Amino acid sequence: MRRRRGPDEVRALLHRRRDLLEAGESERSIDRSVHDGIRVHVRRGWYVDRAAFDELYAEDAHLLHVMAVAREVRGRAVVSHESAAVLHGLDLYRVRPARVHLTTAPGARISSGPDVSATALLSTRTTSSR
């Protein structure tokens, strides 16, 4: 029976290309596993086993993508918009966003690509109202 999964469960499904290579796989075998449908390419350098991916709801598939992107961020950034919703376990009514949304502090570095939408804050200064 399919069910929604939490961030820790989803994170455990991810395989980093570097880790696969260190475990003895070759570049060619990794690429072949994607081509043959054994693995799914989540984003540059990140994979998940096809059988596990096929069991995920759309929200959890997006959460997997969020986790892969978040592991690549250097600097201060927060997951935002629909991506934050799935991180907090909210339903998106089985819609899987194509992009991971982040809001970043000035100077944060994120691996660019069409799968990430990063909005930079103009300032990290906190304001208060009286």
Query: What series of H and E elements makes up the topology?
Result: HEHHEEHHEHEE
Oligomeric grouping of the chains? single chain
Low-confidence stretches: none
Q: How are the strands ordered across the major sheet?
A: 1-3-2
Overall mean confidence score, pLDDT:
89
Overall helicity? 25-40%
Radius of gyration (CA) equals 16 Å
Beta fraction: 15-25%
Number of helical segments with 4 or more residues: 6
Shape: globular
Largest sheet: 3 strands, antiparallel
* Strand elements, count: 6
Structural class: alpha+beta
Span of the ends, CA to CA: 52 Å
What does this structure look like?
This protein has 130 residues and is α+β, with helices and mostly antiparallel strands. It has six helices and six strands; from the N terminus they run αβααββααβαββ. It has a three-stranded antiparallel β-sheet. Strands 4-5-6 form a three-stranded mixed β-sheet. β2 and β3 form a beta hairpin. α1 packs across α5. The longest helix is centred in the middle third of the chain and has 13 residues. The chain is globular and about 45 Å long. The mean pLDDT is 89.
What's the quick description here?
With 130 residues, the chain is of the alpha+beta class. The chain is built from six helices and six strands; from the N terminus they run H-E-H-H-E-E-H-H-E-H-E-E.
Write the layout of secondary structure elements.
Blueprint: H1 7-13, E1 15-16, H2 17-22, H3 27-35, E2 39-43, E3 46-49, H4 50-54, H5 58-70, E4 77-79, H6 81-87, E5 100-104, E6 116-120
Parallel strand pairs: 5-6
Antiparallel strand pairs: 1-3, 2-3, 4-5
